[in-house]
Amino acid sequence: MASDPAPVPQQSQTRSLKTGETDGQKGQLAIRARGVTVGFGDRVILNGLDLDVKRGEVLGFVGGSGTGKSVLTRTILGLIQKRAGKIEVFDEDLDTLTRDQHRALERRWGVLFQQGALFSGLSVLQNIQVPMREYLHLSHKLMDELAMLKIEMVGLKTDAADKMPSELSGGMIKRVALARALALDPELLFLDEPTSGLDPIGAADFDDLIATLQKTLGLTVFMVTHDLDSLYSICDRIAALAGGKVAAEGTIQEMLESEQPWVRSYFHGKRASRMNGGA
Ligand SMILES: Nc1ncnc2c1ncn2[C@@H]1O[C@H](COP(=O)(O)OP(=O)(O)O)[C@@H](O)[C@H]1O
Ligand SMILES: [Mg+2]
Q: Residues 6 or more apart from 11 whose CB is under 8 A from it?
């Protein structure tokens, strides 16, 4: 077995941008973070964090409020500088990429930010086209067609296209933001608290949508969430941030059995008891 050539990874774009090499060991991880340290002034937020996100999985990233979940997300995206450590996305070490290589990588991910507000002066259609304008050179007609496709993909009616953000409900705004995150047909989706602010039914609908898209498009999803329902319903694995590190990770079952204090109180606390009782 050891002498057999490694199977070709399903997504064969794992070829290095720099060297053109492929490597049998590679191709398994969408994100690999090692020793990531991030701070602001004398406050250290992430302190030697290690994290793996496997290709094709939905990883739920949990942790107390203000512990650095959004900071990690933004650091992976290259929007915040780290002080130490290494982050690889699709086997590319982000620190070694040229600007063009980084842009090429950016086209392979989509982001729904926690403050995922749409551009208020742009219509739904125009909002979805923002990444297309930034990264692609397409005709107006083609961009309109692509944006309409995304609108339908996220379960909105096509007449939403010409609406302005102020005319939309909270749930619709999230869907448009998701459509925008999908604008470039990414392989990797970052979702920062995607269901926050939605009522339970709206949140469950949005979870279903994410699950369906993840399966049909074969996405890898890195999802920051506080929502226990989301963790139970769509996450393959969970990583918990505490003390600036991933303090526990595993399946929901493994999290339920974890002795890590924050994980224990989160999964066995008051909010969780309803779900554990039903599980
Ligand atoms: N650009 C910044 N400058 C200074 N402090 C920041 C910055 N971004 C985040 N922080 C601080 O880092 C900590 C973690 O923030 P954040 O990642 O947003 O938390 P959460 O886990 O709730 O997403 C918070 O104390 C926040 O105030
Ligand atoms: Mg946050």
A: 27, 55, 187, 218
**Inside any domain, residue 41:** no
Whether residue 38 has its Cβ less than 6 Å from ligand 1: no
Burial of 206 (0-12, 13-18, 19+ CB in 10 A): buried
Q: Is residue 14 part of a domain?
A: no
Residue 38 within any structural domain of the chain: no
Q: Is 46 in the pocket of ligand 1 (CB under 6 A)?
A: no
Any idea which residue has 């599980």 for tokens?
A: 279
φ, ψ (nearest 5 deg) of residue 153: -60, -35
What's the total number of domains in the chain? 1
State which of 43, 45, 49 you would mutate to test the pocket of ligand 1, scoring each by most atoms of that ligand within 8 A of its C-beta. 45
- Nearest CA residue ID for atom 22, ligand 1: 66
Ligand 1 centroid to residue 130 C-alpha, Å? 26
CA dist 255 → 179, 259, 262 (Å): 31, 8, 11
Q: What is the pLDDT along the chain (279 residues), one digit of tens a residue?
A: 444 555 544 444 444 555 444 455 578 999 999 999 999 999 999 999 999 999 999 999 999 999 999 999 999 999 999 999 999 999 999 999 999 999 999 999 999 988 767 999 999 999 999 999 999 999 999 999 999 999 999 999 999 999 999 999 999 999 999 999 999 999 999 999 999 889 999 999 999 999 999 999 999 999 999 888 889 899 999 999 999 999 999 999 999 999 999 999 999 886 665 555 444
CATH number of the domain bearing residue 104: 3.40.50.300
The whole domain housing 245 covers 57-83+99-278
In a domain? residue 211: yes
**What is this structure's pTM?**
0.88
